[in-house]
Design goal:
The protein has three helices and no strands. The protein has about 90 residues and is mainly alpha-helical.
Length: about 90
């Protein structure tokens, strides 16, 4: 059984190198998060945001960072008497 494990480990390393998956602990996600990377954050300290019609194509660094944090999304809707329009 130990021989099978060693063979599978060897095969894993060969395939991982072949498909360029190293380093496995790539810190890309940490570099993209200003709070972890130590960069200024335009939204730091904010706990709410208001979105209005016309706000489209918002870049990630222009909205609140909710990654790896508990959060609640509340939406206030105004629906006309005749129903919503598409």
């Amino acid at each position: 059984m130990a021989d099978n494990l060693r063979e599978m480990q060897k095969l894993y390393l060969l395939e991982a190198a072949k498909y360029h998956v190293f380093p496995i602990d790539d810190p890309t996600a940490e570099r993209l998060n200003p709070a972890i990377a130590g960069r200024p954050d335009l939204q730091a300290g904010r706990n709410s945001m208001r979105f209005v019609p016309g706000m489209t194509h918002l870049m990630e660094n222009t909205v609140l960072n909710v990654k790896n944090r508990s959060h609640v999304i509340t939406a206030e809707l105004v629906i006309p008497e005749g129903g919503p329009t598409v």
